[in-house]
């Protein structure tokens, strides 16, 4: 998990381009994380801040 939003955004963008899959940037307890978008469930209570799609 990351504490710096700009660093988290950069990592999320680079991860999306490397994996060539959409990834979601989210925040939990003041920390930022990135997961492939299809791994996020609505039941987890995690709200994405932004989604990076390498195909757009």
- Estimate percent helicity: 25-40%
The total count of helices amounts to: 1
- The separation of the N and C termini measures 26 Å
How many structural domains does the protein architecture include?
1
Could you spell the SSE succession in H and E letters? HEEE
Gyration radius from CA atoms, angstroms:
11 Å
Biggest sheet strand line-up: 2-1-3
What's the mean pLDDT score?
89
Q: Number of DSSP strands? A: 3
Based on secondary structure, the structural category is alpha+beta
Beta-strand percent range = 25-35%
Low-confidence stretches: none
The geometry reads as: flat
The biggest beta sheet reads:
3 strands, antiparallel
Walk me through what this model shows:
This protein has 56 residues and is of the alpha+beta class. It has one domain. It has one helix at 5-19; strands at residues 23-28, 31-36, 48-52. The protein has a 3-stranded antiparallel sheet with strand order 2-1-3, covered by helices on one side. The mean pLDDT is 89.
């Amino acid at each position: 998990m990351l504490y710096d939003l700009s660093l988290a955004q950069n990592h999320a963008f680079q991860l999306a381009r490397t994996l060539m899959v959409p990834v979601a940037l989210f925040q939990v307890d003041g920390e930022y994380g990135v997961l492939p978008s299809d791994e996020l469930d609505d039941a987890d209570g995690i709200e994405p801040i932004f989604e990076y799609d390498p195909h757009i």
